[in-house]
Amino acid sequence: MMRIPFSYIWRSLWARRLTTALTVGGVALVVFVFAGVLMLARGLEATLIETGSPANVIVLRRSATSELSSQVDRATADVLEAESGVARGAEGRAILSREVILVIDLFKKKSNALGNVSIRGVSPRALELRPGVHIVQGRPFQFGTHEVVVGKGIASLFKGVALGAELAFGGDRWTVVGIADAEWGEVPVAFVIVDQAVDDLELQSFCRERLARLKVPRRFQQVSELPRTPTGKVKKFELRQLLQPD
């Protein structure tokens, strides 16, 4: 049996160069899309892990893919509350929050377009499960009243959710009594290369003029240069050491 010489293969590819190029381009496009989907999935997974807690568990109905599509009846919730694996407080009661989620529409400040906002009804122990949530303006809502607390991001993006405002949903009106903010995981820090010291307030003002409010860093660290490896990559571990207290 004779072997086909490589020169014949190359000549054949060149003779069909358009078909070859389309084939290679198609395969490359499929690989690119597949890699993009994997990166997106990895990013979402990392975000959920970073903003969650290994000590917390969300219980959903079988086959439900989200809290919105899940429904757990009271009898089942009672069984879950009695489980031995559920953490208990000082008084011996389970640290568990029975929650209801619904979606309402609010007008955005910039575009005046309607946007979806999630409303979460919680139990009295809900904040124990979310130690990173803090009231930055106003006060916490009182259980059993028509009061709500809105997130800082929602308050900055949507109309009608300032302190003292009233929201209409669920067939009733609810008063905004507090603005909450959460510090889950690491707080974003901006490393700024400067020749001389600059006031942090000036840096914040500069960022607010050019960035959305949610993207403005909460902390600035001024450096003369960024530490880099011989290949030019930033040494993130050295940057983290700069943030650690002495």
Structure commentary:
By secondary structure, this protein is of the alpha/beta class. Among the domains are: 74-78 and 92-182, no CATH class; 189-243, ANL, C-terminal domain (GMP Synthetase, Chain A, domain 3), CATH 3.30.300. The protein contains 6 helices and 8 strands; from the N terminus they run H-H-H-E-E-E-E-H-E-E-E-H-E-H. It has helices at 6-15, 17-51, 74-82, 152-157, 200-210, 236-243; strands spanning 100-107, 114-121, 133-138, 147-151, 166-169, 172-182, 189-193, 219-223. Strands 3, 4, 5 and 6 form a 4-stranded mixed β-sheet that branches. The chain has a two-stranded antiparallel ribbon with strand order 1-2. Strands 7-8 form a two-stranded parallel sheet. The model has no long low-confidence stretch (mean pLDDT 85).
Keywords:
alpha/beta, 21% strand, 4-stranded mixed β-sheet, 246 residues, two-stranded antiparallel ribbon, single chain, GMP Synthetase, Chain A, domain 3, 32% helix
